[in-house]
Amino acid sequence: MARNKEKLVLLLDVGPSMHGVLPEVEKVCSMLVEKKLIFNKDDEVGVVVFGTEETNNELMDEVGGYENIVVLQDIKVVDGDLIDILKKLPRGTVDGDFLDAIVVGMDMLIKKYKGIYKGKKRLCLITNAIHPTKDSLEGSKEDQVGTLAVQMTAQGMKMESIVVRGILSQDANKRIMDENDRLLSIFSKKTRSRTVYVDSPISLLGALKTRRVTPVTVFRGHLELSQQMKIKVWVYKKTQEEKFPTLKKYSEKAPSTSKFATHQVMVDYEYKSVDDSSTVVPPEQRIKGYRYGPQVVPISDAERDAVKFKPEKGVKLLGFTDASNIIRHYYMKDVYLFIAEPGNTRAILAVSAIARAMKEMNKVAILRCVWRQGQQNVVVGVLTPNISQNNKIPDSFYFNVLPFIEDVREYQFPSFNSFPASWLPNEQQQMAADEFVQMLNLAPSGKEEALLPEFTPNPVLERFYHHLELKSKQPDAAVPPLDETLKRITEPDLELDFENKSVLDSLCKHFELKENSKLKKSARRLLPEKPSGSNGEDGNGNVSDARAVDSIGQEPVVKIEKIGDLTPVQDFEVMMTRRDNPEWVGKAIREMRDKILSLLTNSHGGDNYLVAVECIIALRKGCILEQEPGPYNNLMRYLYRYCQEKEISTFPKLLASMDVTLISKSEAVDSNFTDDEARRFLDKIKPEPKD
Amino acid sequence: MDLDPEDVFKDEEDDPDNEFFQQSESSKEYVVYLVDASPKMFNTTCPGKDQKDEIHFHVSISCIAESLKTQIICRSYDEVAICFFNTREKKNLQDLNGVFVFNVAEREQLDRPTARLIKEFDCIEESFMREIGSQYGIVPGSRENSLYNALWVAQALLRKGSIKTADKRILLFTNEDDPFGSLQGAAKADMTRTTLQRAKDIQDLGISIELLPLIRLDEEFNVSVLYSDLIGLDSEDLAQFIPSAGQKLEDMKDQLRKRMFTKRIIRRITFHIVKGLSIQLNTYALIRPTVPGAITWLDSVTNRPLKIERSLICEDTGSLIQEPPKRFQPYRNENVKFSMDEISEIKRISTGHLRLLGFKPLCCLKDYHNLRPSTFVYPSDQEVVGSSCIFIALHRSMLRLKRFAVAFYGGSSRPQLVALVARDEITTAGGQMEPPGMHMIYLPYSDDIRDAEEIFPDTEDDAPRADKDQIQKAAALIKRIEMKDFSVFQFANPALQRHYAVLQALALEEDDIPETIDETVPDEEGLAS
Known about the structure:
- The structure holds 2 protein chains of 2 kinds.
- Chain A has helices spanning 22-39, 58-63, 80-87, 98-113, 141-154, 174-190, 201-207, 301-307, 345-361, 427-439, 459-473, 484-490, 494-499, 501-510, 522-526, 543-553, 568-577, 583-601, 609-625, 629-646, 650-657, 675-685, and strands at 6-13, 44-50, 69-77, 120-127, 157-164, 193-198, 219-224, 230-237, 248-250, 265-273, 286-292, 295-299, 314-322, 336-340, 363-370, 379-386, 396-401, 514-515.
- The longest helix of chain A has 19 residues, at 583-601.
- Chain A folds into 4 domains: 6-207, Rossmann fold (3-Layer(aba) Sandwich); 217-242 and 309-407, Ku70, Chain: A, Domain 2; 427-439 and 452-510, no CATH class; 568-684, Alpha Horseshoe (Serine Threonine Protein Phosphatase 5, Tetratricopeptide repeat), CATH 1.25.40.240.
- Chain A is globular, with a radius of gyration of 33 Å.
- The two termini of chain A are 56 Å apart.
- By secondary structure, chain A is of the alpha/beta class.
- In chain A, the strands form 3 sheets. Chain A has a 7-stranded mixed barrel with strand order 7-8-14-17-16-15-13. Chain A has a 6-stranded mixed beta sheet with strand order 3-2-1-4-5-6, sandwiched between helices.
- Chain B is α+β, with helices and mostly antiparallel strands.
- The chains are: A alpha/beta, B alpha+beta.
- Strand 10 of chain A pairs antiparallel with strand 11 of chain B.
C-alpha cells in the first residue's frame, strides 16, 4: 500500500530558548517513531534540527545560506537508530530560523521523491517561534511565505506546527512573536497545515499525534431529511479509544536459539458435552442457545436469520428538537462525525445551512441510523452542529447514540432538600465551596486551558512504549516509573494548589469529616495507596504477614486486611470474623480463592499442595458458615478442570483423601448440589487411571 | 452451568465491562408482589387517557406484568413471587385464609420469572374472578386478618437464601389506607398491634416492605393511619412519599414503575477533593446498553449445554502449553516479552480513587468529549460522616457558577480523566425525572481524538459556506420538522424487542411469533405534510 505510507520530516528547534522543553520534544518524537515501528513500519522519517552551532545541509552546499541547520538524519525507513538519535537531540547555541528550516525540509522531500511519490508527505515543525526570521532577498517575508505555501500545496505536502509558548518560553519580543504568528497563519490559510499553540509540557506531549490512523468511513450515503430531501454525507469516527496494544501469547517451547521458531500460540477450543467430557461435539451438531430467564432457547442460525430484525441501511431524520431536551450525560458512545460528501458543493452548503440554523436556534436533530446493510440493530441518536472555525474546513455535525427505554435505569434518589439540616452546608461552608470552585480554575481566561483532552496524552500508553523501548535493549528492564510530566495528569497541580492555598485551607477548615464510628474499616480504606513506580516502593511489602505474626503474640484482635503468605488460613479466619463491615467476607473469600489458585499454579512438584488443601478446607468452612456456597463450588469445579487439563493427579488424590466435597444443599441452601451430587464430585475428581 | 475459567480470576471490581453491562448472581433480588384483591380494588378507577378509566386492580397487574418483562431481560437472576390477598380462594403453604399465591408449572413459588409465568400472568384478569375471586378478608366479627396472613406468607416465601447475598423486598399494592377501618375497639387495636408486630419482625429479618399506594381522584391516601408505622416511615420520608391525590393515571404508573426497582451501587469510591479532605461516593449505572444475553452453545441432539475447553498449543512444536504464557510484541526485529505482572504494573499509574484536579466552565465540555456511557455519583455518609455536606456544597457551587469538575479516575482497567457534571433534581407529577447528583463523563485522551474533518479539501479554495438566505431556509425547515415533546428514551429497542419476542414464542413452543413494532421508523407521511 504505497499510497498509505507517510514520508515525514521533523523540523526541531534546538536553540537555547528551547532547551527547557527539549526533553519533552525528545519523548514525543521517539514515541512517534516507536509507534511507527509497530503500526506503520514502512513510513519514512528524516530529522532536521535548527539553532545549532554547526551547519550541515544540502541547500547550504548548493546555494549558500541556511546556516545553523543540521540534517541529523536523511529521510529513511523508520528503524531503531532513529529513536536513538531522537532521544539525544543536540543542544543548540544560536536562535534558529524556522522558515529556513521549513525550506530545508521541503527541499529534502522534493529531492527524495522528485514528484514520483503521490502519497502522504508531511513536515512537522516544533519551535517556540520567538526569534526573528531573516529578511528575504526579494519581496516581503509574507511574499516569501506565500511562495512557499504555493509550492507546498503543489507538492502535496502538509505541515503541522507546534508552537511552544507561555510559561514554556521566556518573555520574548511581542512584535517578533506576532510577526512569526502571522507568517505561520499564512501556511494555515493557504495550505493543508495546522498550527497549534501549547504552553505546558503535558500539552506538548499531547499536541503531536503520535499514531497515524487512516480514517475509514462508517457510512457513505444519504442523510434523509424527508423522502424528497436528501444530503450526501460521509460518516467517520471523531473519537475512538486507542486501546492498550493486544499482545500475542508467547510460547517458550521452541528453543530461543531457533531461527525459524515463531513462538506463536494457537488457541484451540473444544466443545464437550457437560455429561460426558470425553466426547467432543462436532460443529454441525452444535446449536446456539439464547437465555430467556432460566431457560436456554435453541435457535439455529437459519431460523434466526428468518425471523431476526432486519432494518434497511440508511440514515433518517426523525425531527429537530431543543438542545435542552438532550442532556449531555445521555451520550452513550464515542463520537461520530458527519461531513458532507467531499467536493459536493451542494451537499456542503446544505450541511452548512442546517448546522448554522441549528446553532442559531439552539436545536439538535434526532436521527435513526443503520450504517450497513445487514446490520441487525438500529441506533437512535443526536446530531449536533459543528461550526468550522477554519475557512478551509467545511461545517459538519457530531453525532452520538442515545439510550433506548431498555437502557435506562430509573433509580430514585433522595432530594438534597430532604436531608436533615445538619447534612446541608451552612452559609459559610457554601461560601468556602463557591470560592474553591471559582479559584481552582483550569481554564482561566487568557491562558491555555489545562488538561484539554485534545492535548492530553494517555499516560499508560506512553509508559508502555517507553518500557517496550527499554526492554528491546535490556530484556529484564523493570517497568519505568510514570513520566514526571505525565504524572501531572493524575494528580492535582501543585502550583495551582499553592496559588490558592488560602482557599484550600478555608475549605478544609469549614468542612469536617468524621469516620463513621460504627465502621472501623473506613480509616484504612481512605489511606492513600501507593501507585506503582512512585517513590517509596517499600509500601508494597506484604504487611499482613508481619501483622499476622504479631497477632499470634499479644493482640488477639488485629485487623487483618489481606491474606498473606505466612499464615493464610489464620488471616482468612480473622477476616471472615470481622464484623465492622459486611464487605470483609466477600474480600476474604475472593482473596482466599486467589491465594489457592496462585499456590497451585506456582507449585513446583507439588510442594504447595498441602497448604493449598488446608486453604481449601478453611474456605469451605467459611463459605458454609456464611451460607455462600457459590464461590467455593465454582472454585472446586474450576480446580477439577484445571487438574484434568494439566494432567495433575496428585492434587485431586490429596483432596479425595481428605474428603473435601462440594458444598451441598443441606449445608447451604443456595447450593445447587444435593448431598449425593456433592459426594459424587469426589469420585469425579479422582483421576481415571491412565493406561 | 458452564464455568468460564476466566471468570474465576475475574475480579468484579477490575473489569469495567462487567460493571458496565452485567448483573452478577451475587447481587440478586428476591421480591414478593403482594397485591390487594379486595372488591375495592375492582370498583375504584382512575381516569386514563382518552377518557378510558382503569380499575386499580388492573393498574397493579399491568405494572407487575411490565416489570416482569423487563426483569427477564435485564435481571433474570432476580426471583419473584406473586401473591394476592383478600381473595375468596386460598393457596399457600401455610393454608391461611384470604391469601393466594399465583404460580405456573415448572416453577417454584419464589423463582426466576419464566416465559410461562409472563404469559399466564398477562391474562390473569380473565380468569381471576372465576379461579381466585375477590372478597374482603377483614370483616367485623371475624378473627381473620388477611393483611397479617399476607405478610406472613410473603415472609415465608422469602425464607429462601441468605440476606447477605440477596436483597429481599415485599412490594405491597393497595388502595386501602385503613384496612382495619371496619373494625371497632379491642378487636381493631388487637389486629393493628399484631399486624404491626408481624411487619416489624419481617423488617428485623432484613426484608424491606414497600408500599405502592393507588390513589383515587377524590380522596387522599392517608399513610399515617396505618402504613407509616407498618413500613417504618419517619416524618421526613413521609412528606416525600405521599403522592398527591388526583394524580393522572400515567403519572401514577410512572411512579409505580420507578419505585419497583431498587438502586444498585456499582462501586463505592473515595473522592479526594484536596489534601486531607476525602469523601465517599457511590456510583450507579443509570444508563447502559442492554444487549441480548450471551450465547450458550447447546448439543442439538440433546439440547444440553456444552462446555467449552480452551487449550493453548505451541505453533512450533505442537505441544500443549500448561502455564499461563508470557506475551510479546514484535519490535525492532525481535520479540519483546512481557509477563502479565509487568503489564498490570504498567497500567497501574494511580490509586483506584477519584482525584479532583480543578474546575472548568461548562462550555469547555465539547460534544466530542465522550467515549462511553456516563456513571452517576451520589454521596454517602455511611463511612465518612460529612461526605454529603461537602458534596452538596460543591454541587450547588458548580450549578451556580456553571462549572464542571475535572478529575482523574485511577481504576486499573483504564485510568482516565473524567468530567463531573452537576445536575439539579427535576421532578414532575410522575416523580423524579432527573436525580440530584453528578454525572461522571469519561473524557478522551489526545490519542483517542481524530481529525477526520481535516482530511479534506485538497483545493486551495475556502470551503463553501451557507449564506443568510440559505440559513433562513434551513431554519424554516427545522421549525417544520420539530418534535416538541421529545424525550431521550421514548423508543424501545426494536432489535431487542424482536429478539425477545422470538425467544418467548420459541420458549412457549408457539407457532406464531408476535409482531413487534419498530417505533424508530420516521413517520414519513407526517413529515411530508
